[in-house]
Each structure stands twice: as structure tokens, then as C-alpha cells.
Amino acid sequence: MANGVSDVGADAPAGGFVQLLTPDGERIDSVTTADGTTYSVDFTDEEYRGLYHDLVTVRRLDAEATALQRQGELGIWASLLGQEAAQVGSGRALRPQDMAFPTYREHGVLYTRGIDPIMPFGLFRGVDQGGWDANEHRFNGYTIVIGSQTLHATGYAMGVTMDGKTGTPDGEAVIAYFGDGATSQGEVNEAFVWAGVFNAPMVFFCQNNQYAISEPLERQTRIPLYRRAAGFGFPGVRIDGNDVLASFAVTRAALDNARNGQGPTLIEAYTYRMGAHTSSDDPTRYRIASEVESWKAKDPISRLRAFLTKQQLAGDDFFAAVDESAKDLALNLRERVLEMPDPQPVSMFDHAYPNGSPEVDAQRARFADYHASFEGSDH
Amino acid sequence: MAETLTLGKALNHGLRRSLEENEKVVIMGEDVGKLGGVFRITDGLQKDFGEDRVIDTPLAEAGIVGTAVGLAIRGYRPVCEIQFDGFVFPAYNQIVAQVAKMFYRSKGKVRLPIVIRIPFGGGIGAVEHHSESPEAYFSHTPGLKVVTCSNPSDAYTMIQQAITSDDPVVFFEPKRRYWEKGEVELGADLSGAFPLHAARVAREGSDATLIAYGPMVRTALDAATAAAEDGRNLEVIDLRSLSPVDYETVYASVRKTGRAIVVHEAPGNIGLGAEVAARVTEHCFYSLEAPVLRVTGYDIPYPAARVEEDYLPDLDRVLDAVDRSFGW
Fold it and tell me: Which residues form a coiled coil (chain A) (predicted)?
């Protein structure tokens, strides 16, 4: 039940964290936490390069989305800038049968699930409210009310147990994403209680990006978030959230524990929201530039690039090719976003109820008649 | 086979049959297992169906409904018990922001066939938070269906229909009528049953229409019996479904009688009665002999038990409204 403490990581917060790749790109072979768990990764050269490709791609897509919002093509955008490693590492740790419950910022996790990155853009452009099938993509709808999805994930995980899909290496596991602000929500604490009591096969993945819009971590907690887990009776581990290797290693281990029937784990990914909360936010009102600068030095992508370069696993040609491929994907995304048609107004009456409703049907008919009454006029 | 059962026992039989017929049905709530619920509605079900099908949950209503959402995404059909009406509010966020909207949000790709059972209404001499009528909050919320039963036969059928429905259903149970007895046709085929969202003419009449639901149907029927002694023949409509309301049945009755009185325990302000009155006025304007009247709880927090009989609509207040309608 001891929490993850690492002796390494000069840049670690008090109490340490699991770090397998330093900001300078030095590999740490393995980290053993106070409870005796050893974390490491065993990637091939190709896999290291693949993670770099993922990180660069999700950052480039995110930049394109930010630009689209600035150009008026999206109503709002919730940028993941700075959190790429937490998302790509944990996302790649998921096995195909696993289920993810995101917030509205998990575009990187979405990408690692093999989902077309266009999928959430209907929501941000304002042409729908999401509109995807959670089960088809093994990725639940973006949940905007803070923390609510942690209970959905817990219930889903209870269902996994009831279906007899745990207790083997091929079992299923569930991951719930949320932020530091969400840890203050009653529903998140209820999810911790439930997951503990029912030994739910799940991982609570908290991206502590230091801010809930404007409020700093100190306004949410007086102890490190990962230590909350102890009170609920399951392990809590803090990782360097800007280290894609640590994110992968610890999430993979926690998911495997869950699928093997050992219950939940809380992972606190210690990271930083480099951008604004959303495109509607102005972070200069509540944080100083030097703080942002200090986190730039811990950038998740530059450290992996440094590692790849030092180890001679990749050179300029590779990096240029990755940039080019990410740019192509981003431009393709842009084209498709611009082509998204506005929905027909009458379609807003669709899908209110699985079995329909005579009230909604009547209102839809009146709406259609009302609009038809203007046909041929200048209205 | 017809049996005489209390309303509570009829619900128990309906839940039992739902558990038997679909292994994806699970019951979850506080004290629903060993204890069988504080009203014993789930009595004996955990013993027969196991702890995975009848789940004693931690004491947190948002958790009950929130985890039910996840179970439903997984393919289960959760039936949540909220112990008392006044305890539903911690779960209000999950019900209104998640349960009601998931189907719409997902463009019809994610269904949440969840039933949320809530014993409601007063008249049992309870302390605060145990006698409330919060149905308007849920009826106001698009994406939810809201129903309530008034007798054992409907209780048995409607709970099964709600569980079978793919719509999320908030199912209000008239707690002070749990012990009322009636004939129940156990094992009857649901496909031929009276539709879940249809109102029922509980008593035919010609002079005025009483519109009630849940615990107030009994009150309305008693009032109609008393009025008959004065030579007034009242029709009683049991709405049964509060969202959507089966207005055609209401309109047909009011067009016949020319007078409508809505009765509910909930406060009158912005209540179901206000909406019914507006609709009846719009659709039956030329049939009305008098304005639509309402007999409801007052616009105050639910009072202490020693005065609740003065708060709740009763036979005399209903008859008083009938007099006022005829005096117009």
C-alpha cells in the first residue's frame, strides 16, 4: 500500500515520482518504489520511435485545432499541450479490450486508440454533442461535467467483473481520466469508494496539470493527490507525467493488476498545462511566465528526441519525416473540419429518447410546419 | 393467476419476474440486499438471485446512479433504488446531466436502460426529507421518462415495463399506498398490457374530471365516491405517466365533462398541475365551463408530521375544489 517514491528525478516534487526518462533524455533503467514494485520498459528501437511519432502527431493536431478555433472554425478547444506524454503513454498501455473514460481533453488517448482524430471535432465545432459509440471505440464520450465519468468507469468495471472478464492476463481493464480539480468532486471520491469496495478492475488516471482553470493545486488538496488512494485502500503512484516511458510502464502495470483481479490503482501524472484551460481562458491572469518557462525545460517531446538522438536511434531525416507526416495529418484534419456540414435544424429533435416521445414528435412536426410556412418568402 | 397483493408486494413480484426473465437486470441501492429495502420492496431477491444481481451499495446516491450508467454502457439494465424522495438530490447531477442526455449526446448510439425507483409522497408521519414529491424536477428534464403507479396491478406491470424499456425511467412509488391491496394477474403477458405511458380512466363520470397520479388517485376516487352522494358524477383520470403525459385521454375527458381539477401532493407552483392546466386550456378552451383548478401541496417546504394532514390534499379539499368549479 506504500506509494510510489523515486529517489531519482532531480526535478521531482517532494516525495518523488516514477521517472524513466529525465528531461535531458537520460534513460533510467528501472525504478523501484517504496512498496517494492519495480517499473521499467522494454521497448524496441521501433517502439521508441513510434512513441515519438505519437507525441509529435498529437501535439501537431492540437496546434491545428487551436488555430482552427482562432480562425472561428471551432467554438472552443481544450488543448492538451504539455500533457502529451501522460496521454500517449497511458493510452498505449491500454490493450485492445480495455475501455477508456475520458474528460474533454483526452485527444491524445483518443489517437492512441486508433480512432480517427476527427471524431471529437463535431463537439468543438458545435455540430453535435459528440455522437460516437463508446463500445465501438472502447472510448466513452467526452464528459464535460467534472468527474462524473469516474463513476461511469467504475460501474463499467463492476460489469467487467460480473461478466467474469477479470482474473486472467487476457482480462479486461478500465481506465478513468480526470484532472486535479476533479479530485475535489464528491463523485470522484464516491468512485474511489466504489472501486475499492467492489475491487473494480480499473485505473484512476489523474493528470495533475497544476491548475483547475485558474485555481492552483493548493486550492484542491493539502496532500499530494496520489496519497489519497491510501485512504481508500488501494495503491497510489505518482509519475513524471511528462515522461512517456513512466506513463506507459506504470499504467501498463496498473492495468494488468486490474485485469488480474487485484483491483484499482490511482496514478497521479504530475504534469503541466502549457496552454490555456480552453481557448476561452487567459492564463496570464493567474500564473507567471517564469513558471511556464520552467516547465518548458521538462517538455515531453524534447526529452524523447534527445534520447533518440543520443542513442542514435533516430536522426534528422526521421525527425523531419515525423514532422511532415504530422503536418499532413493536421492539414487533412483541417480540410475535413471545414467540410463538416451544419446539421439540419430539424435534426435537433432526433435521439431524445430511444423509444421516442409523442411530445417531441409533435414539436418536431410543428417546427417543420413553421419553417415550411416561410418557403418562398424572404424570411 | 390472480392474487390479492399489496402494492409493495406487487412491485416485489414485478422485480422478481424481471430478474428471472433477463439476466442483465440488476438491482442496486442502499439496504436492498439482506434487509430487502427499508420498505421491503426487494425482500428475498438477493437470497434468490445473489449478491451480483441485487447489490447492496455504499451509501452515496450519486454513486448508485453514476455506476448504474457505467453498468448500462456495459450492457446491464440497472434498477436503482433511492431510499427516500428527499435523498435523490445527491444523484440529481447524474440523473439530469448524464442519464437523461447520454442517448442524445451519442446520437442514439449509447442507450441507458436504467430505472430509478423512488418512494415518494407524504402521509406516513415521517421526519424531514421522507415525504417529498420531486416529480416535477424530473418531468421537466428532457431525456427522462417519468411514471408512477397508484395500485397493485399497475405496480406489478409498470415496473416490468419500465425495466424492459430502453428509455431511462424515473419510477415513483406512492409510499403511503405500499400496503393497499388489490388483485394482481401474476405472470400476465406484458405484450398485451396497458401501455406504460398511457393515462387510465380510473372511474368514469360525466360532470367533472379529477386528474391525479400516484398516491392522490386513491384520494380522488374517494372524493368521487363522496361526490356521488351529492349527485355529482366525477370522472377520475390516473395519469400514470408524468413525462410524457397522455394528454389525449385528459382532453377527451375534459371535453366530455367541461370541468378539470388537477390533484397532486407536490407544491402547486410550476408543478405538473400547472402544465396540465395550460394544456387543457389550450386544447379544450371551448369545452371548459370553468377554469382548470388545482388542489396541491402548499408552496412551502414539507411541514412537520403533526401538521402534514393539513398540508396534503385530501377528500375535503378536493370536494371543495369541485364546489368551486361548479360555482363558477
Answer: none
